[in-house]
Design a protein that fits this description.
With 191 residues, the chain is mainly alpha-helical. It is built from 9 helices and no strands. α1 crosses α2 and α4 runs parallel beside α7. The longest helix is centred in the middle third of the chain and has 27 residues.
Length: 191
């Protein structure tokens, strides 16, 4: 059984994934989590605090499901491709995480506090991808002229875009994965 703050964050992520951030009320989260609104205010202070912590929660959850699935024995280029493809899994947890991430990203357009936090989380993800690109270059699996950081930013942006298209039903999961594999091949070039 998760602790109360985790239970609340899981409920908030579910609601955000299902209905978005706009109009999300603490009372709805309270009902979804099966806790009092006072407990939510105790742990998160206000709605903004709940949103910030929910973003942290879904970011940590994504790291957990990707880290658990990556194979350290695989070569860097394969790990890179797998890391990105893990965001396109047709599982309830990944779908929920991706939908909630997209909703929070859209909300950050109007919320400077959330924007800074989202930028930091996105930057860390791009750093991880750039690190794998550098490893692929060192192993001779990526062209030496590739700018790892720029390629990482393009690839992570593509993951967000194709994930949104897949979740909205405007492209199939297979097509989204195919596009991502093609982008990795183009970005890394021939070694």
């Amino acid at each position: 059984m998760p602790d109360r703050p985790t239970q609340i964050l899981e409920a908030a992520a579910r609601l955000i994934a299902r209905r978005g951030v706009r109009g999300l009320r603490v009372e709805e989260v309270s009902a979804e989590a099966g806790v009092s609104t006072a407990l939510i205010y105790y742990h998160f202070k206000d709605r903004a605090g709940l949103l910030r912590r929910t973003l942290e929660f879904i970011t940590r959850r994504a790291v957990r499901y990707t880290d658990a699935a990556l194979h350290a024995s695989a070569d860097p280029r394969t790990r890179l491709t797998d890391l990105l493809l893990l965001e396109l899994q047709d599982t309830p947890r990944v779908r929920e995480n991706s939908a909630a991430w997209g909703e929070l990203r859209a909300t950050a357009v109007f919320d400077p506090d959330l924007r800074e936090q989202l930028a930091a989380a996105t930057g860390e993800w791009a750093d991880d991808v750039a690190h794998l690109i550098r490893q692929a270059q060192a192993a001779g699996q990526a062209a030496a002229g590739v700018d790892p950081r720029a390629a990482a930013e393009r690839l992570t942006a593509l993951v967000e875009g194709v994930s949104e298209r897949w979740l909205s039903g405007t492209t199939s999961l297979d097509r989204a994965r195919e596009l991502l594999r093609g982008a990795v091949a183009l970005e890394l070039g021939q070694a």
